[in-house]
Amino acid sequence: MIATPQSCQELLAHMVGFDTVVAYHSGVAEAERKLSDYLAGLATAWGFTVRELPIEGACGNLLIEHCIDPTLPWLMFDSHMDTVGVEGMTIDPFGGEIRDGRLYGRGACDTKGTGAAMLWALREYAAGSQKPRNIAVLFSVGEEHVQTGARAFVEQHLALLDWTPAGVVAGEPTQMQVLGATGGFVRWKMTTLGQACHSSKPDRGHNAIYDMARLVTALEDDYIGKIRATHPLVGNASAAITVINGGKQVNVVPAEATITFDRRLVPGEDGQRELNAVQALAAQVAASRPGMQVTHHQFESAPPMGTVDGGQFANQAVTALEGVGISSEVAGEPFTTNGNHFAAAGIPTIVVGPGDIAQAHTPDEWVSLEELDRGIAGYAAIMKS
Predict the structure, then answer these.
(1) Residue 1: inside a domain, yes or no?
(2) Is this prediction's pTM over 0.85?
């Protein structure tokens, strides 16, 4: 029996009650499965078409469709079901408690709140008379680790559909500000390889930490410090060495040292080009130091999200929000979302949703009920505009 919510608040409380900590962190291969099944049953009971879009080794994306007329364009809304971990939380992460005008729990803000508001707005849209387009809501998986679901949708699932979105609204907590551009990234590990030996006779080995120290200095002076790319909405491109490891014990010269390098991209930059530049610099450093070896591995990337249609979709969304009393403007952020992958596939994409990113991933994560109501009104306005 599907628990039928009587309000969007109740729907969100149900959604928060499901443990959907991302599989990469939890080790649960289909972390979103129970929530996906609940939403599929609810959407079916409400008269929508439901299908699961499979992903090998993971829970599939859940697609909810409301087709008015096959000849009309489709607008798709996306919200990810997975969350970050719950360690250190000061509230019941799955309680969905409502107090002082807020709903608490892991994912309440990032970003089950957007999903609940989208589905509730679709319910209102379907019951109304103003229906100028077909609407789909995609509940995607694995966003908190390299946007698994969004990648699968553009690389595999689009080909399975008999329609292509004319636009995508990706849900993230933006306080209902419309993001028309966001940052991308390319990140990977670099390892220097030496030769271990007893530290009482270090000349018999090759110290990988010394090599890594040279590489880190070169990266800071000759690459990171020279990044100049900027974007009017997203801001400045950047890079950082975020993790470093090396050595096993105090009396052994280390045979390996590893860093994690995080290069943040702005629209107009190419991740492969930046990767090539860093690899060339690392090769130059290695060539100048006898015995030094550098390997590159564990690559991850996401393209930056720029405007596909000259900003027309974003501007239309701002106008629609203003029509229901939500003041917004086209903005940008340096972080990465599912929207990056939809835009890279050539689909006009914006990022907008209820909640404040400052509350995401926090020990007492919450979303205000006022923001949730604004999300419903805003999404419904975009659907109808």
Answers:
(1) no
(2) yes
